[in-house]
Amino acid sequence: MAEVIWGLATSHVPSIGAAMDREKTQDDNWKPLFDGYQPAREWLAEHKPDVAIVIYNDHANGIDLDIVPTFGIGTAERYPVADEGFGQRPVPEVVGHPELSLHLLENLVDDGFDLTVFQELEVDHGLTVPLSVWTPEPGDAWPCPVVPLLVNVIQYPQPTAARCYALGKALGRAIRNFPEDITVGVLGTGGMSHQLAGARAGFINSDFDRRFLAEIQSDPAKLAALSREDYVRLAGSEGIEMIMWLIMRGALDDDITRVHDTYFVAASNTAAALALFENKADSRALQPA
Ligand code: DHB
Ligand code: FE
């Protein structure tokens, strides 16, 4: 039986990756953000899972905008790093875990979540920046194989927050059903409040972000009850990415421990945050398989 050992929520702002790639993390404007990551990075270095599931959205880099699946899963052996217009990021290729991908696919379809299957996929900043936030110096390889789980948060109608939370619960059940004794880390990516274009470009709502950071642990059902329009109004047209954190949250136990969090305004035009949760061993023993 596989077990989820932690959940990591993090923004995936491309300039965070660029700051790392160009060795600017100690510059005055970036240092506070990267200093804020440090305790989480140290804890994660000591809690390496066998596989990570990264819940993310593509930004029209790996997937054309003419076909936008609501939910999808990668089943490949490897996921090349996409060239987003400035060349590939100088980071390792992402190695997949096809056995876990196919197990999750089958279980989630049986559970009513009809995922689109990506047998080939190039991964953009939505996936690689969270891996860099977790592991700043990966060397030749990321810490473990990755299963990408994709969500449409860029084109109307995005899935509801409630549907995302329900998918997360089904994902947790599917992980626990995997017959091998492996440990799994789940990453929920995107956010926090931001709007990149239009009349409200530059919009940031720290009050909502702080509430979301607290309630993602204590009352995720309340966040899942907010409508798509609530997210766009409260967090901005791209801030709706935060619904992906609810998938991560759903895969964890009801009772989780906050290891660390940090909140920073602004990376690019975006409120950026990280929140790291340990799944509780005691309550895990009580979960049905
Ligand atoms: C930017 C892009 C993103 O995908 C995001 O989530 C936040 C910011 C940007 O281009 O600045
Ligand atoms: Fe994004």
UniProtKB/TrEMBL annotation:
<dbReference type="Pfam" id="PF02900">
    <property type="entry name" value="LigB"/>
</dbReference>
<feature type="domain" description="Extradiol ring-cleavage dioxygenase class III enzyme subunit B">
    <location>
        <begin position="9"/>
        <end position="266"/>
    </location>
</feature>
<protein>
    <submittedName>
        <fullName>Protocatechuate 4,5-dioxygenase beta chain</fullName>
    </submittedName>
</protein>
<dbReference type="GO" id="GO:0008198">
    <property type="term" value="F:ferrous iron binding"/>
</dbReference>
<dbReference type="InterPro" id="IPR004183">
    <property type="entry name" value="Xdiol_dOase_suB"/>
</dbReference>
<keyword id="KW-0223">Dioxygenase</keyword>
<dbReference type="GO" id="GO:0016702">
    <property type="term" value="F:oxidoreductase activity, acting on single donors with incorporation of molecular oxygen, incorporation of two atoms of oxygen"/>
</dbReference>
<keyword id="KW-0560">Oxidoreductase</keyword>
